[in-house]
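User: Second chain of the day. Same drill as before.
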Amino acid sequence: MGYRKILLCFVFVFFSTTISAKTELPSNKSQFISLLNTKVGTYKLVSGSASVCTDGQLSWFDKSAPSLGFKLGEGIVFTALHHGTQTNKTANFCLVTTKYKYTTQRVTLSLRHTRCENQADNLDTSQMLHFISPTRIQYSVENTNVRCEFERQP
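Assistant: Same format as last time:
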């Protein structure tokens, strides 16, 4: 009898945790554009001290051409939204590879500079914009201290 009660409690906790957990599903560029359209507005910095963490507008570069990208304030920039991975050669002879990953709650941009003339220009990083609630956004850069949280203003 004691084992049944323990098992019942375990099953109850498991299902209640599963039901209350927010599921983050894969998405695509067009679904992300629709999501960002609902989030456009003025945001105030709640936490974060990096130089890119400043109050500002979450806005498209060109509302009629969302593939050009968007920005939050002046320092947080996501350009040339695309599907999958793209590699381009730049003027200083670096290969620049960008990869966007869209989910129902965030966008991640992975950026890699390789084969640069100047070895110091080689880079491998990613930045993420996460919609943590209907009015809050978190921005972070991998392997750095850059982490900011913003709240949408009425």
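The longest strand covers residues 123-133.

User: Great, on to the next one.
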